[in-house]
């Protein structure tokens, strides 16, 4: 099936008519370009048990690519299945998506030579990922329906595949990429490749917990590059659970500013000062937190503190971090009650 979004080129129209004459369904949609809607329209007209979404900038180069996708899509417990996609020059364009990479979501291994085995053999192995690209994606139709299809309101052009895959993951399915389905992707050959900021912001707001912590991407690895390189700051923050006082990055100037701010608000609590300073350390060593909570723009610490309390609850059992937990609660209660204090605290932390 082909979903035609208002094609006008005479050669294209003749080609589509040829497909129709051969019994291949061509569904016409003349509306404004909305990638999610077009895919949903195609899914609604499809009669098979497995849906395979394929962009018009994909070039098929092997005979068994479809078998490689469907054989995994029909396995129990499997949700979305992605392919290994190459640029026309033979280098990797897609082999899975890491959420949080680049501040939203990106493709680790991008630009690697196809001959490379990848990070710990990832490019030659069937591997779980939180998300895969919608440029070539297979999923059973009942799972597609269960997840509600692509979101054509919040993600009409970009990140709709990431959003969809996460919703499938939250239903209890796992998403994966197989190297046994390999195609060429002439990325954005027929559409503007630019990402809209509001869709990026929407992804960060809706799925902040995964942007901070993708379960299939190590917290020891960088979020700034797509090469799986080690990031010592992320590693330290992860291993210490945000407790960075033992490292040589203590900024006494910030500690004094925090102490003065708390004193001005009649907060005479060492736990509060210690907790908020540790949070400052964590915020400035983790780019993902700065991207999601961006205190310079939001002027509010509520989201960051809520994350810190939830994160601490996961880590603190039996670790003797009760003073940190108590301090976070004190600060959180105060910022919820005082917009002025919240704004001032966000300025100091940023």
Report on this model:
With 350 residues, this protein is of the alpha+beta class. The protein folds into three domains: 31 residues, no CATH class; 168 residues, Spore Coat Polysaccharide Biosynthesis Protein SpsA, Chain A (Alpha-Beta Complex), CATH 3.90.550; 112 residues, no CATH class. 44% of the residues lie in helices and 14% in strands. The longest helix has 16 residues. The radius of gyration is 24 Å and the shape is elongated. About 3% of the residues have low confidence.
Number of domains: 3
Q: Provide the helix percentage.
A: 40-55%
**C-alpha end-to-end distance:** 51 Å
- In the predicted model, the low-confidence regions spanning at least 5 consecutive residues are 242-250
- Tally of DSSP helical segments: 15
Task: Give the mean pLDDT.
Answer: 88
Q: Quickly give the CATH architecture of the largest domain.
A: Alpha-Beta Complex
CATH topology of the largest domain: Spore Coat Polysaccharide Biosynthesis Protein SpsA, Chain A
Q: Brief description of this entry?
A:
With 350 residues, the protein is α+β, with helices and mostly antiparallel strands.
Write the layout of secondary structure elements.
Elements: E1 2-4, H1 10-21, E2 26-28, H2 35-45, E3 50-54, E4 58-60, H3 65-73, E5 78-86, E6 92-94, E7 98-99, E8 105-106, E9 127-129, E10 136-140, H4 141-147, H5 160-170, E11 174-185, H6 197-206, H7 208-212, H8 232-240, H9 252-264, H10 270-285, H11 287-293, H12 295-298, H13 302-315, H14 322-337, H15 339-349
Parallel strand pairs: 1-2, 5-11
Antiparallel strand pairs: 3-10, 4-11, 5-6, 5-10, 7-8, 9-11
Helix pairs in contact: 9-10, 9-15, 10-14, 13-14, 14-15
